[in-house]
Amino acid sequence: xxxxxxRGRLIAVIGDEDTCTGFLLxxxxxxxxxxxPNFLAVDKDTPLSDIENAFTSFLxxxxxxxxxxxxxxxxxxxxxxxxxxxxxxxxxEIPTMSGGKYELDANAGEYVPSTSAEKESEEILNAIVSxxxxxxxxxxxxxxxxxxxxIQTQLLSTxxxxxxxxxxxxxxxxxxxxxxxxxLLKRLQTTTPPSVYSLLECGIFDKIHEHTLCLIGGDILPxxxxxxxxxTSESGDSVxxxxxxxxxxxxxxxxVMCITELYKTxxxxxxxxxxxxxxxxxxxxxxxxxxxLDSVTVGGAKxxxxxxxxxxxxxxxxxxxxxSLQLSPRKTEWNCLLDAFxxxxxxxxxxxxxxxxxxxxxxxxxxxxxxSSLHAPPKDDQSLLKTDFxxxxxxxxxxxxxLFLVKHMMVLDSGFPSKWIRSTAMDLLLTGASSFxxxxxxxxxxxxxxxxxxxxxDVVIEGVTSTDRPEVLxxxxxxxxxxxxx
Length: 486
Known about the structure:
By secondary structure, this protein is mainly alpha-helical. The chain has a domain at 9-113: Rossmann fold, CATH 3.40.50.10580. It has helices at residues 17-25, 48-58, 71-83, 117-132, 137-151, 159-171, 177-191, 194-217, 220-225, 248-260, 275-302, 308-321, 329-357, 392-411, 419-433, 470-482, and strands spanning 9-14, 41-42, 64-68, 91-92, 96-98, 101-103, 110-111, 238-241, 244-247, 440-442, 445-447. Strands 2-1-3 form a three-stranded parallel sheet, covered by helices on one side. A two-stranded antiparallel sheet has the order 4-7. Helix 11 runs antiparallel to helix 13 (329-357). The longest helix is centred in the last third of the chain and has 29 residues, at 329-357.
């Protein structure tokens, strides 16, 4: 069969040395009038940058028609071609290995990029990402190497962020994938240039925020809490976004790992966490707590005081069937989710405090953790009139709302459904109300918890004086200030 095309000449041969030599001897690898080669011979030792430079040169010419590719770089080359604004008109099918040599399929036809090139390249990337997140290292290792090559390509600057978004979609669609994604991210931190990894990370944070808004604005939370009837056949904590399931617990796990583990050094020191996942976690936690509060309110409104005869009948029934009383599976899932959010908030509070401590942004002293030692902006500052949802003041506002909701439900008779969840909520409030936290290492300096008030008015605690236990009085002052009692 011929490999020539009526629309142009063969511009690239990618394969082993024998394959390239065969095509060159066949007279196909010609030179144009400007003596520029219209082919590229690539072996296993050819740097990726050479392939990219060759393609950059080829894409400036008008006689491009066919590219011959082999399996090990097929996905990368197809993606580079499909992602170009002017797709190359034809690509031969991938040669197959036969008898130790690459041979063309006798029935191979031309692959013509269609109008759905973006969709096809998306499917290719999804397949590679799915393999990269496989539990089997024999499957994931080659896919991870392909991802590294694709991310570092210089033809399109948007590729790293796009890959980051696909990684998040895959990680929240199956249980356990969030941990596998985080393992891949730590690898990419060391194998990709900082500028490229920054774009990848930006795409990850964008997608996490997108899923957060989707879950907040959807019906999955009210359905899980039992406020709304279940209208879909989906079970568990999943919601469908772009025809793919989004597991709420996996999204929570991924967001928390981005806060607590993403920037952790090899020796275990804690550094400043990224701000955007902190905001997303608080947004999602506030939505979950408000939905739970609504479910408590709705349940209380439906119940009426029982009559004496109803009380007797209820006691008899309860004494005979208490051992068989069980929560519905959906209610159990909701209670587990509520406990998970309270636990994760307690885990991340010290990292939020670290952000405030090392911030040069003014946060009101009435906030949970403020930067009131900084100078407040003038009242006529125009920036105060703008609403920015990616700032520390916004994080402080969200955190105050979350902690207030937890305290509000603690004082309700049925605010939390079990003693275990109430205990988790109490741990969270104690962490938030304490005036100091364990020491953290950040940039070689130690950071200590800063309270929300510097009020030094006298506080009297029975049996304790300022001379023998000054730290207790200081802690108690900060506790009163943080709980609005000073």
